[in-house]
Amino acid sequence: MSFPAILLSRPESGFHAELTTLQREQLPDADVHVAISHSTLNYKDGLAICNRSPVVRQWPMVAGIDGAGTVIDSRDPRWQAGDAVVLNGWGVGETHWGCLAGEARLKGDWLIRRPEALSARDCMIIGTAGYTAMLSVLALADHGVAPSHGEVLVTGAGGGVGSVAVALLARRGFTVVASTGRVDALGESLTALGASEVVSRESLSQPGKPLQKERWAAVVDCVGSHTLANACAQTRYGGVVTACGLAQGMDFPASVAPFILRGVTLRGIDSVMAPRAARERAWATLATELDRATLDRLCSRDIGLDQVISTAGELMAGSVRGRVVVRVTG
């Protein structure tokens, strides 16, 4: 049987991304065979499809780090034909063929059961971006941060992780300040998601002092580099900063001052290799904390596989707002 897929290759003539048709026997071996109904476009997908970063480490590669669908057959006793499943990360779309395709073979350890309250489309509105945001918000909760402690900053709030983080924090009663480079274009939508204030990234993205005026009870940082350094320098005594992105850069031009003089905690958030228990907790919480209206606000468009490559280019150009759902079949 054949199915459509976004295939990335690197022949002698150079990098190539195309929508093509593959045969089932071409799929890599893994113990669970899944029919993918929906996927999405994350920043990492954009990097891979547009060949902007060495995301792909084996060639050729089917793109797509996220997928939702139904089990066709399984050698893993935990999964049966007909089970509704969700996949995020685990190197899929990087070292193992991904989910921007009609079918995928995946390891049973990588899958979680789709929450009953969420459809496959809902799960891909959320995607790795929303799941990462939930991990960040849960990390703040585990640190003991409460709404009464003060404002929470979300950097890169116009992106997938940031926008979901704004919605989740606002629902929990926090006063959320959203930082974005597109205040004019996104200010209204971020306010609709629950931000009490929207500020320009310029106030955070330039080199700053090691210690600055204390403002934030906590921070969800999706940006890295000087933005993360300034966020730490502005975090209040005993506060916590979660780091989950690198939109500005992988560097961290900071000092130890916030950590040893103010007791600030810097908490790394890894969504790719997070253990099953953390994933299940995050998805169970997402199913209860994102209502229909919020999901609709988060999703900017639904596209087919035939629009993935062009939309990935828009994503890399910074002209996509909100989450993009890919209808793989149907």
Query: Which geometry do the CA atoms define?
Result: globular
- Please tally the helical runs, counting DSSP H or I stretches of 4 or more residues: 9
**First-to-last CA distance:** 17 Å
**Pairing-aware structural class of the strands and helices?**
alpha/beta
Report the uncertain regions.
none
Q: Oligomerization state of this entry?
A: single chain
At the third CATH level, what is the topology name of the largest domain? Quinone Oxidoreductase, Chain A, domain 1
Radius of gyration: 20 Å
The top level CATH class name of the largest domain: Alpha Beta
CATH architecture of the largest domain: Alpha-Beta Complex
The portion of residues forming beta strands comes to 25-35%
Mean pLDDT: 95
The run of helices and strands is EEEHEEEEEHEHEHEEHEHEHHEHE
Return the domain count.
2
Query: Could you name the CATH homologous superfamily of the largest domain?
Result: Medium-chain alcohol dehydrogenases, catalytic domain
* Helix content estimate: 25-40%
Report the strand count.
16
**What is the makeup of the main sheet?**
7 strands, mixed
